[in-house]
Design brief:
- By secondary structure, the chain is of the alpha/beta class.
- The protein has helices at residues 9-22, 24-27, 63-66, 106-122, 149-161, 179-192, 209-212, 218-226, 243-247, 255-262, 271-298, 302-305, 309-349, 352-394, 397-402, 450-457, and strands at residues 29-36, 46-51, 56-61, 78-88, 93-103, 139-144, 166-171, 199-204, 231-235, 250-251, 407-410, 413-414, 426-431, 434-439.
- It contains 16 helices and 14 strands.
- The strands form three sheets. It has a five-stranded mixed β-barrel. A five-stranded parallel beta sheet has the order 7-6-8-9-10, with helices on both faces. It has a four-stranded antiparallel beta sheet with strand order 12-11-13-14, with no helix packed on it.
- A hairpin with a 4-residue loop joins strand 4 (78-88) and strand 5.
- Helix 5 (149-161) runs parallel beside helix 10 (255-262) and helix 6 (179-192) packs parallel to helix 8.
Length: 458
């Protein structure tokens, strides 16, 4: 078969990934398994495995989904997982992308609740000072379901006891996965309008631990703690105790009791306000239903249905790249530290003080040699000068004159021979200690005696 008919590894991986992504049975998978190889990563994206007695599957839970967990995930915990199965192209491994996790069984729920209790207690949130309730509130915010007996009991009691108070209901779900987020959002809305209210009531009727679970979630607890208004909590029956009850400023055994604790006793009816509230709830519900229908029609698109799949692979690649970068940085720093240590060692061997000391000794030696050479030179020059002075003195005419000789001149002419003289000629005679003028009286030719010659030679 021709080479062009062969697939590259990337093409095969892309084809298989598309098969996984388009398979309707793999878009929403529900599995039960035990958490394995879990180490919490600081950046929020978690990579671990789910296993049973015979098999194991790699899973990834991205930051947005992991942060919604109502409990601390631990190694070996048995969980109910919901997610999609896909293929990670760079390695060719299939994996499960988790959307949610739930502990299996009531024991796990109680365990998650106790974990959160311990965490909040360590932060001092369970033992913090409680804010006092206002004696005569003018405006009350109520966070609960817009339908059911709870809101009716609260409103009926408030109308019966204290009709002049204004009650604002922040309708939320009170059970299910979305309830905690809606309750926390309602508290944030109230906090934005804190000047409009005097206190907050959060309430729900009785139910199982699963039904009451949104009020055991950290998001709701922290929203209650962050409220600047005092909060009355009435969740479930009198025997039920939730995290919301523990962090609220006051716990009421029932929603009716919460209303009684919130207002003093008066006898008027707030029927009109209740009707307006019902109409508002119906109008909001109608708008929400219309929006849900429009949203449902838009959800049919694959990209809009699960947009996170477009970037999940890139997030994993980024995590791997960050890991490689950290390793390379560590290697580089280690090499630089080793080079620095070697340079320090070499610098220690090349101590500047030793070289300076050797240079100073060389300069001192050169100075001594220069002094000696200068002394020898001056002595030699002195000896030479003395010798030349002796020779000059020996040849000096003055010394010859001192021995009795004289210099005879006629005018400017030196007289060396008798042939230069004549009788009557006037001569200048230079003696050792002066001059004399003489006149020639007679001339007689002849030579010096041997004695005189010897003296002349001397």
């Amino acid at each position: 078969m021709a080479p062009e008919n062969y697939l590259t590894i990337s093409q095969l991986s892309t084809y298989l990934k598309r098969k996984f992504d388009l398979d309707p049975y793999l878009r929403k998978v529900f599995v039960v398994g035990e958490v394995s190889n879990f180490r919490k990563r600081p950046n929020g994206h978690q990579y671990f495995s789910l296993k049973d007695e015979h098999s194991r599957i790699s899973v990834v839970m991205f930051k947005s989904a992991f942060n919604r967990l109502p409990f601390d995930l631990e190694e070996g915990m048995k969980v109910l997982a919901t997610g999609s199965v896909t293929l990670y192209e760079p390695s060719g491994n299939y994996q499960m992308v988790l959307e949610s996790l739930e502990p299996e069984g009531l024991g796990a729920l109680y365990q998650a609740m106790e974990q959160l209790k311990a965490k909040l207690k360590a932060e001092g949130l369970l033992d913090r000072p409680r804010r006092p309730l206002p004696a005569y509130p003018k405006r009350i915010a109520v966070v609960t379901s817009p339908t059911g007996a709870v809101i009716r009991d609260i409103l009926t009691t408030i109308r019966r006891r204290y009709p002049i108070v204004q009650v604002t209901v922040f309708p939320t779900l009170v059970q299910g996965k979305q309830a905690a987020g809606q309750i926390a959002s309602a508290f944030r809305q109230i906090e934005e309008r804190a000047a409009d209210f005097d206190l907050v009531i959060v309430a729900r009727g009785g139910g199982s631990i699963e039904d009451l679970w949104p009020f055991n979630e950290e998001e709701v607890a922290r929203a209650i703690v962050a409220s600047s208004l005092p909060v009355i909590s009435s969740i479930g029956h009198e025997t039920d105790t939730t995290i919301a009850d523990l962090v609220a400023d006051l716990r009421a055994p029932t929603p009716t009791a919460a209303a009684e604790l919130a207002v003093p006793v008066l006898q008027e009816v707030l029927l009109n306000l209740y009707k307006y509230q019902e109409r508002l709830v119906l109008a909001i519900r109608s708008q929400v239903n219309q929006a849900k229908q429009r949203f449902s029609r838009s959800q049919q698109s694959y990209v809009l249905q699960e947009p996170q799949r477009l970037y999940q692979a890139y997030i994993q690649q980024l995590d791997l790249a960050n890991q490689r970068l950290e390793q390379a940085q560590d290697r580089y720093l280690t090499q630089q530290q080793q080079s620095l240590a070697q340079l320090k060692h070499r610098l220690t061997l090349q101590v500047p003080t030793r070289r300076i000391q050797a240079g100073q000794e060389a300069v001192q030696l050169a100075q001594r040699q220069l002094h000696q050479a200068k002394s020898h030179y001056f002595q030699a020059q002195s000896d030479h000068l003395a010798k030349q002075a002796g020779l000059l003195e020996a040849l000096s005419p003055l010394k010859i004159l001192a021995r009795g000789y004289a210099v005879v001149q006629e005018g400017d002419q030196l007289v060396r021979s008798i042939d230069q003289l004549s009788v009557g000629q006037t001569l200048d005679i230079q003696l050792r200690d002066g001059q004399a003028t003489a006149q020639v009286q007679a001339l007689q030719a002849g030579q010096l005696s041997s004695t005189n010659r010897n003296e002349e030679i001397e």
